[in-house]
């Protein structure tokens, strides 16, 4: 369980192949935009097997690992980097539980998905993994650190 953070964090969010196939890209981007996070990276990308294996290396020993790699490489994904205060835990809340049947209504998975093996979106589980995953999925010139024109009223 992640504790609310006051740090500016980077999180890697990815619309999985089922989300792209089902036409949910706009809807999913919209949830993070509306929340108020800053988009710093965005691309449609066909993921090679090696990258999927590196991304999910902590799950290597799980029985579902080969199926997971097959799933993630089955079609293009949408790779995103989002930045904000407490962005990692907050994005995980917006995404909802891994099993969509246990995800609360109002979350992306709670509203849009049914199966764990087709749970439409990924979100980094720690700030360290956020940085690691953004480094894995994006090349240096693909991340854009822009400054919002208005200062927030509160922080
Ligand atoms: P994600 O990394 O995709 O955001 O998902 P997560 O942290 O909520 O879940 P994690 O345990 O890291 O698992 C990564 C992805 O593997 C698939 N999975 N399948 N068949 C199964 O029991 C099973 N468990 C996990 C899901 O696609 C999950 O999102």
Automatic annotation (TrEMBL):
It is an enzyme of class 2 (transferase). The active site is at 122 (pros-phosphohistidine intermediate). Belongs to the NDK family. Residues 8-145 form the Nucleoside diphosphate kinase-like domain. Major role in the synthesis of nucleoside triphosphates other than ATP. The ATP gamma phosphate is transferred to the NDP beta phosphate via a ping-pong mechanism, using a phosphorylated active-site intermediate. One of its GO terms (biological process) is response to hydrogen peroxide. Keywords: ATP-binding, Kinase, Nucleotide-binding, Transferase. Its EC number is 2.7.4.6. It catalyses: a 2'-deoxyribonucleoside 5'-diphosphate + ATP = a 2'-deoxyribonucleoside 5'-triphosphate + ADP; a ribonucleoside 5'-diphosphate + ATP = a ribonucleoside 5'-triphosphate + ADP. It comes from the Eukaryota. This is Nucleoside diphosphate kinase. ATP binds at residues 16, 64, 92, 98, 109, 119. Transmembrane segments: none annotated. Its cofactor is Mg(2+).
